[in-house]
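Handout, section 3.2

Students often ask what a structure token actually looks like in practice. Rather than define it abstractly, here is a full record for DNA-binding response regulator. The first block is the sequence as you would receive it.
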Amino acid sequence: MTEETTDRHVRVVLVDDHRMFRTGVQAEIGQTESTGVEVVGEAADVDQAITVITATRPEVVLLDVHLPGGGGVEVLRRSAAMMAAAENPVRFLALSVSDAAEDVIGVIRGGARGYVTKTITGTDLVDSIFRVQDGDAVFSPRLAGFVLDAFASTDAPPVDEDMDRLTQREREVLRLIARGYAYKEIAKQLFISVKTVESHVSAVLRKLQLSNRHELTRWATARRLV
């Protein structure tokens, strides 16, 4: 970042479950005198995000898509009432490693003003933050055309409220279960414990209101997730 001072100022909350990434972003953009960005809070999961956003009322939230507790879509959902009632609404800019269609479209439909990937430079990220603060829609160059095409096309992925309830890890476990993997095989492939796999499966069954593995497999097959 340059050392020039700026008259502009924006208060930002960082929401990402990787502490080292938050630290890196803070170091890159959080030099308030030169960037105009003041990082007023951080959060690592959905519950923390809601608590911090409510307490600090930032202008912009940098929001990761994949978070413990329901993901970025859940943060947007739970923040919706607060944003609608606020005199100066909180605006959300998704900042993610993912450029998957379901992630991009999910958070934009959820209310985010933009979506940039983690390959973005610090300078461009600061610019994107201020543009979102001003009410602009901001996307990484590679995603802009894709988003426009997706929303204009009749082939755009439909809203799937059931899928939106699942975290990214729960979706991964769901797909592997539907493909016939045993719990031990899933644990090995995802580098997690069997107990954690069991917890994810229970959460998926509860959220989708299904009773057993057979119903889960049929549900996933119907949505071509297998």
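Discussion prompt for tutorial groups: The radius of gyration is 19 Å. How would you have guessed this from the sequence alone?
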